Amino acid sequence: AKEAGKNNCQFYTKGMNATAVNYLLLENDLRRALELNQFTLHYQPQIDLKTGELMGVEALVRWQHPERGLVSPAHFIPLAEETGLIVPIGEWVLREACRQQKIWLDAGKKVGKIAVNLSPRQFRQKNFPGKVEAILRETQLAPEYLELEITESCAMEHAGETINQLNQLNQMGMYLAIDDFGTGYSSLAYLQRFPIQKLKIDRSFVNDIHDDMNDAAITKTIIGLAHSMQLRVVAEGVETEHQAEWLRQRGCDQAQGFLYAKPMSPKQFESHFHGGRFC
Ligand code: C2E
Ligand code: CA
Ligand code: CA
Ligand code: CA
């Protein structure tokens, strides 16, 4: 802990203000959170815009902190990424999501694919495909029930390596999606070489489709781009029926957002799930 503290001080030489101290406290807590079993996953549905059917669920991590309460991933994922703690945390997330999916499948609950977010450091590990394989074997989950999401910026940063890694995962039979699409700088030449099945339009565009002509134009372009590459396209952050209708009319395949549901605990999720639909 002392060593970690030292690194952190070096990192924050610009002045140990309240935020930096807070960050240090958080890092120490974060190190212990896995042992203390303080992480949980919440699940958010992805809905087919034409049929209303449930197509999948995205697993989103939360930290149940004894004093701070439920901590949002936006507050600890960047720190976890920086310290490398994201590797064991991400592994826990993947295992837990696969375990939950297997339970739902065995109970006859077809929630579609379970989507798991990968952080760059986790995805870039040389033996990452092997780790996924081991987790699938351990949880006895068939790969077709799993989907992995990497962000556009992560995918494009070392695009050559990305292709290698995605090819291995694709050959194992799982689905692959590019997250937060539209926020990074995509090379279309690379995008075409990625063996992926899905693009997720970032919610900053979806949010403003009715107020901002640029965002509407970008959203339309992404839908067209996805379809020209035979990819499914999902709009994130859909909050109103008006937005859903706009997306449906322009051929967007799926939607995810507060209009349908906030991310929920497995119990909450099950209480809204009836006969293949989410209500
Ligand atoms: P993301 O992957 O883009 O996940 C979607 C985020 O948008 C979630 O925030 C979700 O709660 C939020 N969201 C969904 N629908 C709406 C909506 O209609 N309106 C608004 N305003 N927001 C909506 P959350 O759960 O706080 O996660 C934030 C980010 O943290 C995620 O963004 C992802 O980048 C990261 N994250 C979450 N779980 C994991 C994880 O297990 N591993 C990794 N590496 N990152 C994760
Ligand atoms: Ca995501
Ligand atoms: Ca996203
Ligand atoms: Ca905007």
Largest sheet: 8 strands, mixed, barrel
From the structure provided, what is the oligomeric state, counting identical versus distinct chains? single chain
Count of beta strands: 11
Bound molecules: ligand C2E, calcium ion
Cα separation of the termini: 47 Å
User: If you average the pLDDT, what whole number results?
Assistant: 92
What gross morphology would you assign?
A: globular
How much of the polypeptide forms β-strand, as a percent range?
15-25%
Relative helix content: 40-55%
How many distinct helices?
A: 13
Task: List the strand order in the largest sheet.
Answer: 1-2-4-5-6-7-8-9
The topology string of helices and strands comes to HHEEEHHEHHEHHEHEHHEHEHEE
Q: Roughly how many Å is the radius of gyration? A: 19 Å
Give the helix/strand class.
Answer: alpha/beta
Low-pLDDT residue intervals, each spanning 5 or more residues? 1-13
Features:
single chain; 11 strands; Bifunctional diguanylate cyclase/phosphodiesterase; binds ligand C2E; 8-stranded mixed barrel; binds calcium ion
How would you portray this structure in words?
This is Bifunctional diguanylate cyclase/phosphodiesterase. The strands form two sheets. The protein has an eight-stranded mixed barrel, surrounded by four helices. Helix content is 48%, strand content 20%. It is built from 13 helices and eleven strands. Helix 2 crosses helix 3 and helix 4 (86-106) runs parallel beside helix 6. 37% of the residues are buried. The structure holds ligand C2E and calcium ion (CA) (3 copies). One calcium ion (CA) is lined by residues 179-180, 200, 202, 236. The site of one calcium ion has 5 residues, from strand 6.
